[in-house]
Amino acid sequence: TEYEHLLNQSIAEYVIPSEHVAHVQPDNTLEHALLVLVKSGYTAIPVLNTSFELYGIISKAKILDATLGMERIEPERLDQFQVKDTMTTDFAVIHDSDTFERAISLSIDHPFICVKDSKNAFSGIVPRSKILARMNGYLHE
Amino acid sequence: TEYEHLLNQSIAEYVIPSEHVAHVQPDNTLEHALLVLVKSGYTAIPVLNTSFELYGIISKAKILDATLGMERIEPERLDQFQVKDTMTTDFAVIHDSDTFERAISLSIDHPFICVKDSKNAFSGIVPRSKILARMNGYLHE
Ligand SMILES: Nc1ncnc2c1ncn2[C@@H]1O[C@@H]2COP(=O)(O)O[C@H]3[C@@H](O)[C@H](n4cnc5c(N)ncnc54)O[C@@H]3COP(=O)(O)O[C@H]2[C@H]1O
Ligand SMILES: Nc1ncnc2c1ncn2[C@@H]1O[C@@H]2COP(=O)(O)O[C@H]3[C@@H](O)[C@H](n4cnc5c(N)ncnc54)O[C@@H]3COP(=O)(O)O[C@H]2[C@H]1O
Q1: Is the CB of A45 under 6 A from ligand 1?
Q2: Which residue, of A27, A44, A118, B21, has the fewest CB within 10 Å?
């Protein structure tokens, strides 16, 4: 189609690099994860171990769901649960060599896409806002 | 530009109509709002009164923030707070006669856009997923 140029573009310039992505580790407590989520202001963030292997996504919604089972939510009791027991493993992943076309179609159903490098380590995320900003710019060229 | 046809399209076909949009009322308790949010699975939903006037957006994040001030979060204490004291009034609004162009640019910074009809009543929302699905389809025509 006439949109080959946009669709075949590399996603590299739309990636928020890992050093700017709020994240937690699988063994962290839910109390710690809640603190990072509230401080960062994000509703969901990646779960990575120290060698940047991607384990899942933890969200305020998941932590909230975990606490609803308790009679009383005592923030200090959140330290009895670990991120790896509450996180979701249903998330979108693409490689840093993938095309913009792949990123658009994944972003339809995922608020952000995790990006891996050639060694399978986490290298950042592509959020929907970046895809939408690019599309908006493209349509006004 | 050559994209006039897409940009000038009406947003009508991308609107999730109000009867399918989970919402709460300004005078509802936070306990009730939390129940609706958890049951619906959405992170944020509109706040409407009985004549479908739009007041704001309530989210799990806002309810969580409101409870963090408490020493212990007792779900039944959430019934002492009302939605109107916790909701955010910073949200995106367009009219059902607006163009797709307007919807794209608002969706860059908002996960969903509230839609009003000619009498200024709430008529539904346009979520980012609908914008992205349309763009993805357009680029493959
Ligand atoms: N501090 C902030 N500054 C400016 N705008 C903000 C913001 N926090 C949220 N927003 C706006 O709200 C949208 C939804 O944020 P949310 O946290 O639910 O959902 C976010 C969050 O879960 C994740 N995310 C984005 N940036 C992140 C980062 N640096 N670290 C970790 N997660 C991130 O990707 C999702 C989609 O992000 P996206 O940018 O498309 O969409 C964002 C952005 O448009
Ligand atoms: N039950 C479900 N079935 C299928 N997919 C689901 C889903 N719940 C969430 N998702 C997916 O996750 C995205 C983020 O949902 P979230 O609840 O954070 O954020 C949602 C929510 O805050 C609001 N929203 C969407 N549909 C709604 C509805 N029927 N009533 C009230 N709010 C709605 O608009 C935001 C953006 O929605 P969007 O569709 O772009 O993006 C959704 C969708 O792609």
Answers
A1: yes
A2: A118
